[in-house]
Design brief:
about 90 residues; alpha+beta; two-stranded parallel sheet; 4 helices; about 35% helix; about 10% strand; extended
């Protein structure tokens, strides 16, 4: 999650240690960890986003975004995949 002020990694307490070891190393992300049993990631994200809301391509109920953004996440066609495949 990226805000104008900070960058965050939001993950459950089971995945956070692995993500830290394999992905983050010394990157300056703030860790926002939640219990995998409770699944409170939406609450954490809403709290960080605040009243300004947020845009996401995940299935979270944190707010809406301009429908034009949805068009940016369109799967590649077979021809496009063939063009970029090595």
């Amino acid at each position: 999650m990226v805000t104008p002020d900070d960058c965050y990694v939001v993950a459950n307490n089971i995945e956070m240690p692995r993500i830290e070891d394999e992905e983050l190393e010394d990157l300056p992300f703030k860790r926002l960890e939640y219990s995998w049993i409770v699944g409170e990631e939406q609450d954490i994200i809403r709290e960080v986003a605040g009243s300004k809301g947020m845009a996401t391509d995940l299935h979270l109920t944190c707010g809406s975004f301009d429908p034009e953004l949805g068009r940016l996440r369109i799967p590649l066609t077979d021809a496009e995949i063939g063009t970029i495949r090595c």
